[in-house]
Amino acid sequence: MASNKEVHASSIGEAFEMFFKNIKNYFADFGKALSKGDIAVKLSTVLMGAGYFARKKFIVGLLTMLMEAAFIFMCIFYAAPNLAKFGTLGDTVRSTQFDPLTMQNTVIEGDNSFLILLNSVIVLFLFVVFILLWIHNIKRAYELQQDYEKGVHINTFVEDVKSLFNGRFNVTLLALPTVGIVLMNIIPILILIAVAFTNYDQQHMPPSALFTWVGLANFKNIINLSSGSSAFGYAFFKVLGWTLVWAFFSTFTCFLGGIVMAKLITYRKVKFPKFWRTLFVVTIAVPQFVTLLLVRYFFGDTGIVNSFCASIGITDFLKSIGLVASHLSYIPFLTHPGWAKFMIIMINIWVGVPYQMLIATGVLLNIPESQIESAKLDGANTWQIFWHITMPYVLFVEGPTLITDFVRNINNFNVIYLLTQDTFVTTNQTLANANAKEVDLLVTWLFRLTNDYYNYKMASVIGIIVFVICAVFSLIAFSRFLANGREESYQ
């Protein structure tokens, strides 16, 4: 029997093999259409509607020609002016010139580097889309030729339109979401990637200034391990380490805590289980940002928790064992790096466990009783049943959720920002030079770089790195989870 690692490697290998096979077949079909197509198919390489006109699909052919004409018009009046400056992102700086006739300064508009970059990325994306449509047009023309030669009925335009609401209704439904994904996700991601290779920051802010390409300089800057030569390099690995620690503990503490709470509440000897379950559900009803803001004030240096701890001697005790500096009269719950990280994880448990408890309750109530009864007959104790039956079943059901929770916690902006903003101030000068804090996640650091310091180039680099980390982890985790699936055990 193959090991888990072998199955895992095989599943990833098969996925990549299938991906490249589909690409190979796609272009192979295109090459076949070009080589074996008739004159109408070959003419479609220049006049895109020719293949449709030859098969008497005049309306579709006309629409295809209009699309080609619109693309040519776009290339002349929109693509060419922007792509001409894409290499430099502009060379004319905005300036003012004194006009002696009006005795006023006249603004001479220069190039806007960001608009040039934005428009150029859109143009390049449209080029790719058009090339794919051009290939599809040729392949479709060849399919129509084959249908014509075989005597197969070729749909009219009306029949094609009707098919969009019948056999091809899935295409109609996916059209609008696809456009939305392109506009709201793909184009911004491409812009983000492009900005990472520029020097777009507060000193190079359009339209008053220009920015330009700098290649891999930003990436070299952020992965530089020497704190003396690169504050960003030092800060990046500090923040990355804490981000991964936070994601691990915030995910698994809430996950395990939710299972434990669900087990306790469903335990037959617990009195008033509905009351306890309702009590935890009420905490979910309160908006998270309200809870976090209140807790931030409670655990502030002058908050109610510090006042209580000082009055009963907890603060003095922590001083005596060295957990609180002797010159402080309070516990720095959210103002000291070590304390703040510990408290952030603890507060997240309070916020996250009730939600996980509800999910775990539903899972636990659906564990096959036959397996539990069989384990008891075999002499298994409560702990053995929990470890060998309950936990595998919960992991099987909640595995995908656990993976997405880990990725979500890497980008968990609310908890970190709302608890530490205007409260935590770093004393590490190197981190401060990179506009980072000890308690920052990569996503909160990215937000601060863009919103407070307008350092878009480094924020874009961090955004790319966050995306790569989340994508790689998700790919590996989901592949491993699916490879180790035990669905047949729970049927």
How would you describe this structure to a colleague?
It is built from 20 helices and 2 strands. It has helices at 4-36, 39-43, 50-54, 58-83, 113-150, 157-163, 169-195, 217-222, 231-266, 273-285, 288-298, 304-311, 314-320, 337-364, 369-377, 382-410, 413-420, 429-433, 442-451, 456-483, and strands at 95-99, 104-108. The chain is flat and about 90 Å long. Helices cover 69% and strands 2% of the residues. The protein has a two-stranded antiparallel sheet with strand order 1-2. The chain has 2 domains: 37-215, no CATH class; 224-299 and 334-490, Orthogonal Bundle (MetI-like fold), CATH 1.10.3720. It is mostly helical.
Please summarize what this structure is.
The protein is mostly helical. The chain is 69% helix and 2% strand.
N-to-C terminal Cα separation, in Å?
22 Å
CATH topology of the largest domain: MetI-like fold
Q: Radius of gyration from the CA trace?
A: 31 Å
Task: Identify the strand order in the major beta sheet.
Answer: 1-2
Shape: flat
Largest sheet: number of strands, sense, barrel closure: 2 strands, antiparallel
How many helices does DSSP assign?
20
CATH architecture call of the largest domain: Orthogonal Bundle
Q: Class by helix and strand content?
A: mainly alpha
- Count of discrete structural domains: 2
Fraction of helical residues = 55-70%
- Highest CATH level, the class of the largest domain: Mainly Alpha
Order of helices and strands: HHHHEEHHHHHHHHHHHHHHHH
What portion of the residues fall into strands of 2 or more residues? under 5%
Q: In terms of per-residue confidence, which ranges show pLDDT below 50 for 5 or more consecutive residues?
A: 1-9
The CATH superfamily of the largest domain turns out to be MetI-like
What's the total number of strands? 2
Average of per-residue pLDDT values: 85
